[in-house]
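Example record

One chain of 291 residues, shown exactly as stored in the release files.
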Amino acid sequence: MQFVIKSKNSSAVLGLDGAQLNSLKKNDTEYLWQGDENYWAGQAPVCFPIVGVLPDGKAKAFGKTCNMKRHGVARINPFRVTHQCSNSITFTQNSDENTKAQFPFDYELSIKYTVNGDTVTNEYIITNTGDEKLPFVIGGHPAFNCPLCEGESFEDYKVVFDKPIKKPCLRPNHDTGIVDVEKSYDEMHGSDTLLLRHDLFEENDALIFEGCEAKSATLIGPKGKGIKIDFQDMNNILVWSAVGNAPFVALEPWTGISNCSDENEIFENKRGMTVLEPGETISFKFKITML
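Predicted structure tokens for this chain:
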């Protein structure tokens, strides 16, 4: 089932399956990747309570065993609509026996999307509904068509940050998803601009800008079309495309990152972890603006 929210010139289509974006349009241009199993069948999954992977899919969280596949349990378990109006919709998922078999904690996760002008705000609202501490990380994984206009190529595009990036990025292993923290990659050379090319993503996976100095990133083409991600609430941003010359770029704001080579199996000690006390609520936002 799908739902449409819109403003005068822009619209977003949201799917109940995964409570994720299925379409982002401005003046009839489709900005969101539409999925293709030849490259990547996904579009914009919500990652919770992990981003990326755990070693062998396992961890211990406050002494409890977790068994989770890539990007966690939220995207593969049911949501329901708890609020809807012309320009906004909220989906909610509560922990149940299926989620607790993989992640043995009680939670409520609400995902609110709001269109204002050409901007879609993505808000994640997490409540600890249990009687013990709730550890988690959360992140968005939206992918965008690249190129956007006929006659353009992938290499015509660039990602421009609002500040120079002086810290080298990290990269997960293609096969394991684990980040080797002994290896860093200075792809930016102290500039604010990443020129896109397909071979960036062939030998290594996503570029992880951990503790990113910038708080916005703009994917922009030669005709001025693109998208801008504002991620003030997130500490990390990833830039990713699939192997095989995939015609999309994902810009992914995360509160944490995938499991790192210097981390052990203790879940709550991993980078970027948020821990909520019983009854506590927190929210994280990022914005997507269509240019």
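Notes: The longest strand covers residues 281-290.
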